[in-house]
Each structure stands twice: as structure tokens, then as C-alpha cells.
User: Fold these one by one.
Assistant:
Number 1:
Amino acid sequence: MIHTKEDLKRYLYADREAQPPHPNIILRHFDPIYRIKTLIRLCEYHFNLSSNSFYHKVAYYCRKLQLKRLEDRFCSEFAINVFDEGLVIWHPQRIIINPNAKVGKHCSISSGVVIAQAHNMCPTIGDNVELMIDCAVLGNIHIANNVRIGAKTLVIKNINAVNTTWAGIPAKKISDKGTIETPIPRPTAHL
């Protein structure tokens, strides 16, 4: 979680390294993915410090309003204090994240991903996990590190096998190759 200015800088740097923004600083601010990730991190920073400071309360509500506009534009719901550093968002449309879920470092999510509660329990997702288009992770489950979840997959049970690929409804293991043998591709900066 982001509690200091140094934490904020570290998280923003890790997110930019995982998914480089446009090299032109002016065009960078028109990139919705860059704006969403930056606003998520700024909201986390100001929210975590808002109990002691009026400035951080006001700054949090201003940043949250900006984030809400982008969420409405892309029909998504991004929660704060969920993602660890190195977040990659491929397409920001229709992403729903429960605020009580926990996601590890270097997570990659695509359009239509749902990380949600079932019976008031939320999932915990490990490091280096790739969630592909339209997959859903529901309930009190744990997903191990270096796991790839295929498109249109429904995960309702724990995935304890490290470095595997899962697909189907409900999810079944289809490969022993996860994100170690075939790492999450790093997006290149716009040229």
C-alpha cells in the first residue's frame, strides 16, 4: 500500500516500467490507460493519508472524481488499494474490481475481467498473474504466482499450482506453462 511519497513514486515507476507510456509528455496525458493507472495510484496515496490531513481529503475527492469519469467512459470499476506495483491494463473496458480483493505484483488484466466477491468473500491473486479477456475470478479463493487465466474462464476454486495455465467454465488446468516460460508480454511505448 502507498503510505509515503516514496511509495507513490515507486509504484508509479513500476507501473510505467511494466507498461511504458507514450514518450511525448503531452500525448501521454491523452492515453486513457496511463491516466487510469496514475489516478488509481494518486487516489491510493491521498486516501491512505486522508485521515490526518484536510489537504489529502480534498485531493482524494478531486482525483476520485477524475477516475470516476474515466470509469464511466469505459464502463469499468477500479478499486483502490487492490493492486500491487507493476499493473498492466491492456484494454480498460468493462473491468470490475472488488475493493476487498488483493492482487500481487505485475498483474496483467484485459477487457472484461471481473475480480469479485461471492458470499461476501473476495479473491487473493498472486504475483505475475495474467487475466485474459472476459475472465472472472469469484469468491474466497487464492490464485498462485505465475498463473495464466485464459479468455472467458470462470475461476471459482483455488489454483495452488504455480506456473500453470487455466481455462474453461469452471477453470481447468490446460498447461504446465504459466508466465515463467512465456512471460507476460511487455507493451512497447507508442512510436
Note: The chain has a mean pLDDT of 91.
Number 2:
Amino acid sequence: MESSSNHMFYLVAAYTLVWIMVSAYVLILSKRNQELKDQVKDFETRLRKQGVSIED
């Protein structure tokens, strides 16, 4: 019985680790996406100040 519960422990640990890694990856992508959106807005603002027409 010990080996069965030992296997279950490792299974749960592996699933937990995978979910933590996936969650961290999604958070990193979300942060990077927001940074890119901010950069695009900044570029659009700079272009408008220079008189360049931008279609949304």
C-alpha cells in the first residue's frame, strides 16, 4: 500500500507543479501583452503629434 500512496503523492505533486508553471506562463504573457498595448498607444500618440493619420 505504501507504494500506491507514494505514487499518488507524486502524481498530485506533478499536476500541481504543471498548473503552477502554466499559470505563471499565462501571467507572464498577460503582462507582456499589456506592455505591448501600452507601446502601441505611445507610438500612436507620437504619430498623431507629428500629424500622421491613424485609422483605428
Note: The chain has a mean pLDDT of 93.
Number 3:
Amino acid sequence: MRTLAGRLAESTIATAGLALTLGLLLGLGVAAGSPLYVGAALAGGVAAGVMLTNVRASVLGLLAVLFLLPFAVVPLPIGGVRPTFLDAALGVLLVAWLSQALLRDGGRFVATPLNGLVLAFVGLSFVALIAGLSHGLSPESFRLFLKLVNSVLLFFGIVNGLRSQEDLIVVTRVLLVLGASAAIIGIGLYLLPRERAVQALSMLGLLGYPTGPGVLRFLADTDRLRATGTAIDPNVFGATLALVAGVTFGQIFGRARVFPLWVLVAILAVTLPALALSLSRAAWLGCAAAAAFVGGLRDRRIWLALAALPLVLLLGAGDGADQYFGHLLSGFAARDRAAAMRLDEYREALRIISDYPLFGVGFGSAPSVDSFVGVSSVYLQMAEYMGLSGLAVFAAIVVRFYRDALPLLWPHASTHRPDLGGDGRRTIGEPGANASVSTGPVAVESESISPQVDEVRRAIALSALAAVTAALVTGLLDHHFFSLRFPHVAALFWLHVGLATAALRRGGSQVQP
């Protein structure tokens, strides 16, 4: 039970933080001499104040940034630096989580089987950074490195911040809605006349986005437009939507849904076309892997649907589908320029890894003028940056993650063969939807993934695991989930790892939504 002193301290800190934030933002707005900036400062200050006093609200704010404005920067410099919305959202979440841990939980933190491995991974990243200083490290590269580390540490914020079942439900709902919104924006911009699309995207220039005709992205050596939404890069857009599709698959075939089935089908109906329009082959494969993963745990008829999908599309869509399959096959055969460049990147990456096998070349410059760092594969890029030691620790994280989670989901696979009409499952909020095993309050001193979880948590964990599976498969052919240039994509990965871990941990208060 929280003490009166603790509540007063928390209230005082929250009020002071809100006042300081509002004062700072209002001062910047007045200094800029723009009513628009003043209004934005007020709105941002109120939002920041709410997020600082509520971990769940800070996670929701972070989700909005990740899906809708991942590259936005604060319009006015603060101390000569223009922080990004992502910097602000991650920072607010960190403060909210630490204040909750110190003031409400007595300084205790949730212990999970992954904690030590994730900390070891972060520690090795600093070792690699130091080991690579001889190759040069610019201030910008160091700043991007810290952003990447902050994205990895998001795992702890999610596991410690989302304590109740209600937290998990609300975050999953908002994640799906924001993911669908990003897909709708991407489709809308794709369908606009190109001049109008350029104008619409250029309006984000105030927030640091690129402007002009270059905001539209095309398939290399063609005039085929690729959907990007507000993600700038079509491959980033595709990777983001692959995760959304994975969460949606898990919810559709889980036993307890956070939305009615028709809402989930509608989300999938906008996510999959937007994913297709991104022309991201790696994301397509990741999405298919997520569906296959859910099929293996819930309904193997999904495998038959995936096997039949190419034939159905070819017969039903004709030349349009043929273009997409041709694009996919040309990647496997390395017939197009992008695929051929990947082969060059792989060769260079293997050479660098063989020269720097233990800790890699770090996160700065390439080791020589005739070499380059960067490859379209998460795993090769990780080995370039951190050596085989870093890659090994990451592999250990993934193995432990699945080893602990799968036994809690697998026993239910053989008996769960739903038909999507009357399978007996319920949407959260319906009578009986939350009948579950409760093991009492959260034991933050020593928690572990446990079989004593209910179907609500199990369905959310299945969804998050499907998204992680999509990311891991996408990462075979793309680097965005571990890239200095795209820390928000790395944050999405670790957010889903944390969400699954939080859903399956022992106990958890049973808060009715």
C-alpha cells in the first residue's frame, strides 16, 4: 500500500515536472513569435505532463510517434539541438517508469529471464563502440548510437511499466489502431495525384521531414511508385506494417480478442494492401512468416491458405499480381539492381566480420577508405558493428525468448481449431471474456514467465510473438531493426519483445477493462 508521503512526493514531482515542461515550451513558443508555436507548445506541454505521470500514457504517446511521425523533430532548437519526437517520447517514458518504480514500487524492478541478456547486449554495444574509436566516431554517429541503445532499453520500460491486464489490452488496441492509421495514410498518399502527394508530404517539412519531389520513392530503374506513408523509406514502411499484420493475425486466431473480429479483419484489410504497395520484399516475407507462426500454434489451415495464396492472386488479379510476384522472384534471383547491390553488401560484410570477428568495427566510420559498413541484413550488420560476440548474445536473447514463451502457447494449439464464426471465443468486455486464473498482486522482486496466465494475456503474447517473428524474418534481408538511421524501427522490435514478456510473466493484477 502506498504511503501518504509517497503519494505527496509523487504529486509534487509530477506537478513540478508539468510546470517546468509547460514553462519551457511556452517560452520557446513566445520566443519564436508565432501563435502556431504557442498553441503547439500548450498542446505538447499538456501531453507531456499527462505522460510524465502515467506510464501507460507515455507508452501510448510513444506508439503515436513510432507509427505516425517517426522522423519528426521539435521545430525549435533547445540548447542548439533539435530533439526528435522519438527522443522526447522515449525520455518521457524513462522518467515516468523510473518515478513509478521509485515512488510506487519502492525501487523494485521486474526481473525476467531476459534482463541479464539484454543488459549484456547493451554492455557489449559500448565495448564495440570503444573498440572502434580508432576508426573515427563523429558526434552525429555517437548521438545515433545512444538513440539505438535507448531503443533497446525500451524493453525494460515496457516490462516494468505495463503491470496490469488493462495496460496490456489498451496498448494492444492503440497499437492496432495506429498501425491501421499508418496504413490508411500510406494508401491515401499513394492514390493521390503525384503533385498533390508531394505537397502533402512537404507540409511535414516544418517537423524536419524532407520536402520536394524527392519525397516520393520509386522502384529502382522504374517509374513504379512505392508507398511510404510518413515513414520516408518504403522498406521501413513495409517493415512497420509487417509487425502490425503479425499482431492482427495473433488477435484474429487468439482465444480472447481485444477488438471484435470484424474490426480486426478491417485492420488487416487496410494493412495488407499498404504492405503490398510498399514493394518491400523482405517485409512481405516477414508478414508471411508471422502468419505461418500463428498457423503453427493455432490453426494449421493458415499454412494451406499461404500455399494457395500465390495461385489465387495470379488467377484473380492477372497482370497486376504477376508484377508483384515478378518483383519478388527477381530479388531471389538477384536480377534487379537492388538485389545485386545486396550481394555486394554481403561480400563486404563477410570480409569485415572476418577481419574484426570479436567486437566488430564499432558504430563509427569504416575501418578503411576502400571499405564500407552497412548491409541489408540485421544479423550481418549487427556482426559488423558488434562482432560475433554481439550477434551471439542477440541470438541467445531470441532463443531464450522463444524457449520460455512457446511452451505457454503450444499446449493450446492442438485443441484450438477455430472457425471464425462461432468458435466460443470472446472479445474483451463481453461476459466471461476475462474469466482467468489470478495469482495475486505483481511480485516485482522476482518474476518469471509462468503458465499461470489467462487467455487474454496469452492472446496478446501470441500477437507480440508473431510481430517479433515478422521482424526476425524481415531482418534477414533488411537492416532497419538494428540501424543507426532508424532507431524507431529498433524500438518497435524491442517494444513487442517487452509486450510479450509482460503478458506472460507470473501473476499480474486482473484489472477489468
Note: The longest strand covers residues 217-218.
